[in-house]
Amino acid sequence: MTNLIRLTAIFIRANVESIEAVNAADALADVTDGVINIEEAVFVFSSLLKRKFEITDCVPNVATAFVVTSINELKKAIHERDFKLSYDIADILQALPTNEYLKDKKAVSSFNKIYIMKYNKKHGAKLPLIVMKEQL
Questions:
Q1: What pLDDT, on a 0 to 100 scale, did the predictor assign at position 136?
Q2: How high is the pLDDT of residue 26?
Q3: Alpha-carbon distance 18 to 66, whole Å?
Q4: What burial class does residue 105 get, using C-beta atoms within 10 Å of its C-beta: 0-12 exposed, 13-18 middle, 19+ buried?
Q5: Residue 53 near residue 119 (C-beta atoms within 8 A)
Q6: Which end of the chain has the smaller Cβ count within 10 Å, N or C?
Q7: 121 CB contacts (<8 Å, ≥6 apart)?
């Protein structure tokens, strides 16, 4: 799922003002909120991004709060036609580390600092940090 999130975020960044970007943001929010199942999501993303997808991983627990909050904020921003904010949120999601790196404390700390904290400071927002179990 993390790979699908990254690829969809790249698509949204590149097409931020299009109806397809709105549809992609809606589909991401729908799958993370459980409105549609994984199979339906794969169909939607495959249609929008014009390539075949498979879900080969899940979002690890350490990143769930960040991913769900970011996707919901992206959906809200894109529906409000705040393209600059939409672009910035999609930029963070496209940089989401792979699950392998989400197990690495240094990689997670670096991602938090470079992407999440910078975004939060710039927008006066509060996207949750990715927190390793050892950091709790």
A1: 44
A2: 96
A3: 25
A4: exposed
A5: no
A6: C
A7: none
Quick one: tokens of 78? 């894109």
Give pLDDT, residue 132. 75
Structure tokens at 43: 């169909």
DSSP state of 132: -
What span, in angstroms and rounded, lies between the C-alpha atoms of 3 and 8? 9
In the predicted model, residues of the chain with pLDDT beneath 50 are 135-136
Token reading at 52: 């075949």
Of 28, 30, 35, 34, the closest CA to residue 10 belongs to: 28
Per the structure block, which two tokens stand in for 14?
A: 């590149």
3-state DSSP call for residue 47?
helix
